[in-house]
Amino acid sequence: MSLSAASSSIIRVCSVCGTRYAHGTAHACASDRKSAQEGDDLLGAILGERYRIISAISKGGMGVVYRAQHIVLDKPVAVKVMLQTQDDGAHQRFLQEAKLASLVHHPNIVEIFDFGVLTSNQPYLVMELLVGQTLADAIAQGPLSSRRVCNITAQVARGLAAVHEKGIVHRDLKPANIFLISQQPVAGDAAAMSSSSERVVPEEQAKVVDFGIATLVAPDATPRQDSNPTPARLTVPGMVMGTAEYMSPEQAQGHKTDHRADQYALGCIMYEMLTGQVPHQGSTAAATMLKHLTDRPTPPSKVRPERNIPSALEGIVDRAMSLRPEDRFESMSALERELMLLSETLRTRNPSTASLRLPNFGELAKRTIKPTRTGFYALAGGLLISLLIISGLLIKLRKTTQQARQVEKIAAKAIMEAAPKTAKPIVWRLASNPPGAEVVRLADGVVLGTTPFKKEAAPSPGEEAVQLRLNGYTAITLQLSRGNSEEHERELQPVPVIAAKSKKGNNHKKSSSSKKGKGKKRGGSVRDNDDVAIIK
Length: 536
Known about the structure:
Layout: E1 7-8, E2 10-13, E3 20-22, E4 46-47, E5 51-59, E6 63-70, E7 75-82, H1 88-102, E8 112-118, E9 123-128, E10 133-134, H2 135-140, H3 146-165, E11 168-169, E12 178-182, E13 204-208, E14 215-216, H4 249-252, H5 259-275, H6 285-294, H7 300-303, H8 311-320, H9 332-348, H10 361-368, H11 373-418, E15 426-433, E16 438-441, E17 447-450, E18 453-457, E19 463-469, E20 476-481, E21 486-491, H12 503-516
Parallel strand pairs: 1-8, 15-21
Antiparallel strand pairs: 2-3, 2-4, 4-5, 5-6, 6-7, 7-9, 8-9, 10-12, 11-14, 12-13, 15-18, 16-17, 16-19, 19-20
């Protein structure tokens, strides 16, 4: 089922003489001056007889965002217009973004007011005008404080919980798709922080935007509002779409995803906010996705030891980024509760002991001990006796410690000698570009998995031959050692087009093959999931 919307008119207004004329028609202005709208067909135009385009805000690979004004309500809005060079699938995703986002009304989700298709066949959507910066811009200024990370992430989790209640999964959550609105500009967050304290940042509101590749949890799922139609499902199982740096392991493999895929992406964003860098970064998108499957990121406290990142916050990030979906938080609401409790703890915690002034023991002694000869001798004798007692205890403790270490060494040696010796398992890691190629064992034709691929096994002598197969691409054969770990990344080459043979020869072969192979069927298809779209 394709998504559609009624066509909206485009009326242009000459900035010089004020004449209105239809988009695409020529206008001869009586004045010799040039119109201010030259260079952009939509600047100054009126869309759908309601929205006057004022200026361009930003432009991406998929569309342009304009500042506009509702001519009746005199209300500022933002209008996102798709570029004309996109294909039909991109048109459908654009309209799906509008329909899915319009189902959710939440303070932390961008509000969609209207959408449609222009007479130029360009889809557009009208949304609230957001003034502030993206989370990507904030991270570019440096790592964020722990409390600010908790507040921003809790708001995003709260908004996504409302999205998930409608049966919708965002699937492309990243800093560029989170907008921050503050009462005053947030600048120098990293520079104003010290190792012993955290700067209190002004209150800011986070909003999730861009539902371009969002999908319903199940093909037959319907939103909880019966008055809204079910959006078309524009992706199929096995299609890989999203941004590699924030993609969950199940999404990278083309498996079925649910709300926990958004939670993994949010964990990656928390990691980036705390450290200023993404948890996994490969040389290619396929290499990055493979790292999500096989590697665990370095803990944020190790990456930024000077930030004094709380261990509780680090534990939340680690759980949200669990490789298995069932090991993550059961819902976004549960993640939000943990973050709010930690944020309150950070707000009310006691001052660091580094900021407390220690007493001067010299001044304390002068105030409590009278400067007499008797007092001096008593103090010296007491100190001497104390030193003798402490020295005796240290000598005894040292001997006891040495004996305990000797016993420990003997026991460890005995355990190692008694324990059976096991060989370290070998690991095969295979990746392809595009991903999704089947890994086939040539010995028996068994499909071991799809790229990105990882397998652990006990070492053994010999080699094993496997082949990377993807529909429309030339297969690649690899010889893998059973005794050593190996890692390969291969670029698949498209199958060259072969010219058709003569009609007579084809008829003859067709006749022969029909006689020999009558009653036998061969066929099948290989799912192609090489589409990794970076949605901006």
